Amino acid sequence: MITNLAGTQIRAIRASRNLTQQQLADLAKIPRATLASVERDDGNPSLAVVFKIALALGTTVDDLIIEEHQRVQAIPKAGMPRSKSEDGSYSATVVSPLDSKHLLQLVFTLEPEGAYEGKPHPPGSEEYLHIIKGEVILKVAGENIHLKCGDSARFGGNVHHIYQNPAKSTAIGFVTILEKQL
Fold it and tell me: pLDDT tens digits, residue range 133-142?
């Protein structure tokens, strides 16, 4: 027996994809009334029914039945990927979940008077930069945007960009990159 969490998740995923109950039932090869019952949490659907629905949604049974508090992914410091520029002036730590397909989050440090040339991301990507400490000049699309502690910027991640620290102290920033899903 499957808990009623499946109905809530199925309904949410179906709605986010603009599918009607009939469309999802057809994809899952189950009667619409069965799907409606599952979504209303009327009783406990069989594993076979939930499996068919998961397949039709392109997800897993676990994603439909695991409670949100069980979905927490803790990443120990030792497991966070790190990178450094060749000259050592820029270092970054990945803080987003390691299995994220279209989201990348980094905390970086930029040494005094150092610069880092960002790598363009796929077309349609967006990059969000937030300065936690110090200041950074963001060079993007022919502009120089001076960002100080607490400032943020958003720009197309698929364009050439440079982070430059004009100060005599280390800058720290947070970057979020959202890559467009194809």
Answer: 999 999 998 9
Q: How far, in Å, CA of 110 to CA of 67, rounded?
A: 40
For residue range 125-175, what is the model confidence (pLDDT) as tens digits?
A: 999 999 999 999 999 989 999 999 999 999 998 899 999 999 999 999 999
Residues in the chain: 182
Alpha helical stretches, state H, 43-176: 47-57, 61-65
Domain span holding position 66: 5-71
d(CA 55, CA 30): 12
pTM over 0.90: no
Same domain as 91, residue 62 = no
Query: What are the backbone angles phi and psi of residue 62, rounded to the nearest 5°?
Result: -55, -40
Q: Identify the domain boundary among 15, 46, 71.
A: 71
